[in-house]
Amino acid sequence: MTEAAAIARSGGPVTQARLTVDFRRLGLEPGMTVLVHTSMSRIGWVCGGARSVIEALFQAVGPEGTIVMPAQSSELSDPSGWCEPPVPQSWWDTIRASMPAFDPRLTPTRGIGAVAEVFRTWPGTRRSLHPQVSFSAHGPLAADILSSQPLEDPFGAISPLAVLNRTGAHVLMIGTGWDTCTALHLAERLADPQGSTFEDGTALFVDGERRWVRFRMPQTDVDRFPVLGARLDGHPMLRHGHVGAAPARLFPVDQAVSLAVQSWGQPALTP
């Protein structure tokens, strides 16, 4: 959505003060740990843009709270698997030989919105070390949440999502659909720990040198998330509201993951 379209659909400027009120009405409280997914265009015209959204989140959870966001960099993958858009096969070897190695400070996010990218560069924000599906976090629990994210099992029992699951964290979805709900990837891994994988690759620093590293990643299936989400939307543990003009949801990670694991045919597990 263009800025002109955001202005046209807004009843007025969405200020940081209004965002803070909306977050509190939805249920954000001081000391909470929150995994946030945001579509800026759905909120309306925000005075101050992504910065105002982030500062309102900090104000809502206070200095004792921790904010977490995806920091995905999907372009750091093997070009043979690219489809949005694909590149000619004749380019693949050149891309593998010249792709910059992942650097948590320099590698930008891709396809997850302006708020997540601004948050990644916010003073004091930390980032996990997975080259494709990292998370960023700011607050007293950030180091613990981001401490481990295995290359070949980034969403499993030893991952930032697993820490969020066992520490009472919540998910906040601002104008985004269930297909963006990263926490459900943990449920996939718990429901089927030996699930299918695919071969991938990326550029990493190994012993101080850039190398092209091949590895296997778990296969994910976001197409089933909206079906589960329709059930979760009617569950009493989930709170609905609005942030600006955007429909929003707030719910606990552990309950959503437990229900998802049960729905996908396995007993609920605790990582």
UniProtKB/TrEMBL annotation:
EC number: 2.3.1.-
PANTHER family: AMINOGLYCOSIDE N3-ACETYLTRANSFERASE, SPBETA PROPHAGE-DERIVED AMINOGLYCOSIDE N(3')-ACETYLTRANSFERASE-LIKE PROTEIN YOKD
InterPro entries: Amioglycoside_AcTrfase (IPR003679), Antibiotic_NAT-like (IPR028345)
Catalytic activity field: a 2-deoxystreptamine antibiotic + acetyl-CoA = an N(3)-acetyl-2-deoxystreptamine antibiotic + CoA + H(+)
Tree of life domain: Bacteria
Group of enzyme by EC: transferase
UniProt family annotation: Belongs to the antibiotic N-acetyltransferase family.
Keywords, comma-separated and alphabetical: Acyltransferase, Antibiotic resistance, Transferase
Full protein name: Aminoglycoside N(3)-acetyltransferase
